[in-house]
Amino acid sequence: MQPIHITYLNRIDIEAAALTDQEILAAIEQSLGMQGRGETSIEPRVHLEPRAGVEGHFNVLRGWIGGEIDAAGVKVVGDFVDNYKQGLPSEFGVLTLFDPRIGAPRAIMDASGITDMRTGAVTAIGAKYLARKNSKILGHIGARGTAYWNVRLLDSLFDFDEIRVHSRRPESRNAFAERLGKDLGKKIEVTEDWRTCVEGADIVVEASRLSKPEPMLKTDWIKPGAFVVPYGTMSAVELSLTDIMSKLVVDDWGQCKGGKFGSLRAHVEAGKLSEQTLHAELGQIVAGLKPGRQSEEETILFWHRGLSLSDIALGHAFLKKAKGKGLGQTLRYA
To answer: Where, if anywhere, are coiled coils annotated (predicted)?
Structure first.
C-alpha cells in the first residue's frame, strides 16, 4: 500500500494562513451555490450531551462537497457557555477532511476560528441577498466568537453608518466594541439593553447565549423592511416574530426541522415555520433558483443552524492557502 499522509493545521497555522474577508465570503458563497444546485450532500447535525449539570454539549456536523473541492468532512465542536469563567472561549472545534473516493483522511485542523468565520460569512451572504442594499444600521446581540465575524463581514459588504452591540455582561460587550472599533476603524455604540440595540435597525442579528429559552427580542421592535437573523442555541425571540415576515429563509431545512436546539425550534413545533411557510434555503437563492429580496418593503428572516458544507469549504480554502505558504505539518497515517 502506498503511504497515506495527513496535513495537520493547528490554530497558529490557521491564523498565519490569513484568508482575507473577500476569500472567506467567496468560499462560503460558492459552497452555498453548490448546495442549491444539488452538488453536495449534508446530514443533519447531531448533539452529544456528556454530563448533567454542565452548560454545554457537542455538535457533530457531516457533509460532502463536490466540484474542485471534492471532500467529505466531519466537524466536532464543543459549545460550553460557562467557559468564560476559566478565561476560555465557549467553543472548541476540530475539522477532519476525507477523500470521498477511497475514504482516506486528508487533513485535520483546528476549527474554532473556522466556525466563527464561516458563521459570520453565512450571516453576511444571507444579508447580501436578503437585506436592503442601503442598510446602514446594524443591531447585534451577543459578543461571542461568531459575533465578531458577523459584524466584520457584514460591515465589509454594507459599510454601516451605525453599529450597535449588546450582550449580557458589560465587560464582554465593552471589550467586543473596543476590538471592533479598532479593527473596523469606526465608532461602535454599546447599548445597555436589547431594545436600544435592536429598535430601528436595518439588520438585526441575535446571537445571544441564553441558558434557557426566553423571549428577550420583542417582535414590535423590528423595523418594517428589516433583515433579521436569529440563531442563538436557545430561543430569544417571541413566537409572533415569524408572523411579520414576508419571507422565511433557512440554510438547510433538514437541519432546521429537527433537534432540540435552535432559535426557531418553537416556531417549527407550532407549525409557523414549515415546508409550506418556508420561502427557500439560502443556497437556492444564491444559485438563482429562487428569488431573494424583491422589494424594499419586505421584512425577511434568515435562520441558519450552521452547515458542515461551510466548514468543509472554508477548511479547503485554508488548506490550499496554508500549503502555498508552507504552513502545517505532514503526519504519516498509514
So the answer is: none
Is the domain of 83 the same as that of 139? no
Beta bridge partners of 109: 9, 95
Do 177 and 268 have their domain in common? yes
Residues 182 and 154 in one domain: yes
Please state the domain count of the chain: 2
In single-letter form, the type of residue at position 306 comes to G
For residues 273 and 215, give the distance between their C-alpha atoms in angstroms, rounded to a whole number.
17
Q: pLDDT tens for residues 156-213?
A: 999 999 999 999 999 999 999 999 999 999 999 999 999 999 999 999 999 998 878 8
Between 124 and 79, the more confident residue is 124
pTM: 0.92
Domain that holds residue 164: 119-306
C-alpha cell, 91: 467553543
Are residues 129 and 244 located together in one domain of the fold?
A: yes
Give me the pLDDT at residue 144, please.
80
pLDDT in tens, 219-235: 999 999 999 999 877 88
Neighbour-count burial of 320, counting CB atoms closer than 10 A to its CB (0-12 exposed, 13-18 middle, 19+ buried):
middle
**What crossing angle do the helices spanning 21-36 and 145-158 adopt, rounded to 10°?**
90
Residue 8 vs residues 2, 213, 317, 334: alpha-carbon distances, Å? 19, 38, 14, 15
Q: Do 314 and 302 sit in the same domain of this protein?
A: no
CATH number at residue 89: 3.30.1780.10
C-alpha cell at 60: 457533530
Burial class (CB in 10 A: 0-12, 13-18, 19+), 101: exposed
